[in-house]
Design goal:
Blueprint (H helix, E strand, L loop, with lengths): L1 E4 L5 E4 L3 H12 L4 E4 L11 E4 L2 E4 L10 H11 L3 E5 L2 E5 L2 E5 L3 H8 L1 H20 L7 H9 L1 H16 L9 H5 L7 H8 L13 E5 L4 H11 L4 E3 L3 E7 L4 E7 L4 E5 L2 E4 L3 H7 E2 L4 H8 L3 E11 L9 E3 L9 E3 L14 E9 L4 H4 L2 H14 L8 E14 L5 H12 L5 E3 L2 H4 L5 H38 L1
Helix pairs in contact: 1-9, 1-16, 3-4, 4-5, 5-6, 10-11
The protein binds flavin-adenine dinucleotide (FAD).
Flavin-adenine dinucleotide binds next to α1, β11, β20, α15 and α16.
């Protein structure tokens, strides 16, 4: 059935992840109507929590940490005492041993052997000396790491894990993503901390404590939805399929779910959906060079395999990083170490992250085979035995990481340059802007987009007030 909504006052929000919902919450609580459309059956996007018979897990453990006061206040006001502090303690599995993460100097020294460590330090010194003579070129991740930490460090600590995470050679990964923010996926801060007395404690990546909603990270999105629905609407299972414009403004979106389809008009439009997809959905389509640029932006996808176990606890860790390529998953976490409410009494679960490209062997593997492989490796790592396993779940999460290939910055700026012609279209968020955003950045992006719409609204109101005042003045004369 085709519906047409001709209410032109609302802000249309594409995507019910943290970006879209934060924008929606701020706008609707300021009395500004919004309509949020989320293609998935649930809100939350990448920051959702899955519940399988009382076993709860995020798509890779999500810890909330922000240095932005406004974002902290926003989340704390939303969740109150549902937020619990979690102590961070992580390990990394290398050379068949578990090391503390961030690496501790003695741990690293004895674990890798004195000779390797001396070589690494000498190598680092040599790169620093080279840097004094000539500014090194830092186009790729490899260039950046080698010039900042030396070739030995790159080979030992970076190459294998980075290539496992990103799925492409380090010489093809842009150095720019390091600048955007190195998170847990990189080891640089840990290594600097370990070897060069660098204090990484200020880096969000290495913070000792963080906050976590006791029933999982997805609770933030659920609360945002509740707030928005006090005054406005959030439609899940409803995808935006077309974005209709007149060359200067977006006029409406075509939306569809399994029951109906329709055209929804609006005043302002926020897109937190993947940037390349947004470009493809514009109607009329943009010029070929913009479509071609959009086709060059790609994503790394994620397969999450969760194993539920008949044990109260398996590890005492927040995260365990697994750089070795021979082990197919890159990271493990045990949600019950974050909050006891993540599993039924006396039980636990291990969540493993397989980095993948949609359509590759991992992505297309049957759930049974993925579970089999995961249990096998967890057993070999000494975490569980087969008889501990109660159940399992496999979730495929597309577009988990924007893939920062060398040259992506220029591609993104060409696309944003083109999109800037649409006066009322706002792109925001992680996949929406193709940025390495964590949850706090996503929330910040949503809030600041809402700010600019509200400012525009009040500027519009002021202009209308001025017009009215002028008209009244005219009448009085
Ligand atoms: C494995 C992993 C671990 C992470 N760990 C952390 C962590 O510990 N701490 C942290 O702060 N951050 C973490 N992050 C980052 C965090 O998940 C993101 O920053 C945040 O969820 C991004 O929110 P968003 O709304 O911008 O994007 P998304 O969550 O991607 O939301 C976009 C939404 O748009 C919807 N959509 C797409 N197309 C359409 C359409 N056509 N119509 C309607 N809707 C559409 C999607 O379904 C999705 O819900 C992690 C990310 C990953 C992948």
């Amino acid at each position: 059935m085709m519906n047409i909504s001709d209410d032109k006052t609302a802000t249309i929000i594409i995507g019910g992840g943290l970006t879209g919902l934060s924008a929606g919450c701020l706008l609707s609580s300021a009395g500004h109507p919004v309509k949020v459309f989320e293609s998935d059956a649930e809100v939350g996007g990448l920051s959702k929590t899955i519940d399988r018979d009382g076993f709860r897990f995020d798509l890779g453990g999500h810890r909330f940490f922000s240095k932005d006061e406004r974002v902290n206040r926003f989340v704390q006001d939303l969740l109150g005492d549902e937020l619990i502090p979690v102590h961070r303690s992580s390990k990394i599995f290398m050379r068949n041993r578990f090391f503390d993460y961030p690496l501790k100097p003695l741990n690293a020294l004895f674990g890798l052997g004195l000779m390797t460590t001396l070589r690494a330090v000498a190598d680092y010194g040599a790169e620093k000396a080279k840097g004094l003579l000539r500014q090194p070129s830092q186009v790729s991740l490899e260039d950046w790491v080698v010039s900042n930490f030396g070739r030995t460090m790159f080979d030992i600590y970076f190459k294998e894990y980075s290539e496992k995470v990103w799925g492409i050679d380090c010489s093809r990964i842009s150095a720019d993503w390091v600048a955007q923010r190195i998170r847990g996926l990189s080891l640089s801060s840990a290594i600097r901390n370990a070897f060069f007395s660098f204090s990484g404690r200020d880096l969000p990546t290495l913070a000792d404590h963080f906050l976590y909603p006791e029933t999982g990270i997805g609770r933030i999105a659920e609360r945002l939805r509740e707030e928005i629905e006090k005054k406005s609407t959030v439609s899940t299972g409803t995808a935006v399929e077309q974005i209709n414009h007149n060359g200067r403004e977006v006029e409406s979106v075509a939306v569809a779910n399994h029951l109906w389809s329709g055209i929804v008009q609006g005043k302002e439009f926020i897109s937190s959906m993947p940037l390349p997809r947004l470009v493809q959905l514009l109607n009329p389509l943009p010029p070929d060079d913009i479509l071609e640029a959009a086709s060059r932006l790609s994503f790394r996808d994620l397969v999450v395999v969760t194993i539920m176990v008949d044990r109260p606890r398996v590890t005492d860790q927040t995260w365990i990083y697994i750089p070795e390529k021979k082990i197919p998953f890159g990271r493990i976490h045990e949600p019950t170490n974050w909050s006891r409410k993540m599993a039924p009494e006396g039980k636990s679960l291990l969540v493993t992250e397989f980095f993948s490209f949609k359509g590759d062997r991992t992505w297309n593997e049957t759930d049974e085979r993925l579970v089999e492989t995961t249990v096998d490796h967890l057993q070999r790592l000494g975490f569980i035995t087969r008889k501990d396993v109660l159940d399992s779940a496999v979730i495929r999460a597309p577009k988990a990481y924007p893939l920062f290939e060398v040259g992506y910055e220029e591609t993104c700026s060409r696309i944003s340059g083109y999109l800037s012609r649409f006066r009322n279209l706002h792109i925001a968020g992680r996949v929406g802007m193709f940025r390495y955003y964590n949850m706090d950045h996503a929330i910040h992006s949503g809030l600041s987009t809402a700010d600019s719409i509200l400012a525009r609204g009040s500027a519009g109101d002021t202009a209308r007030e001025d017009e009215r005042a002028l008209a009244l003045a005219g009448n009085a004369r």
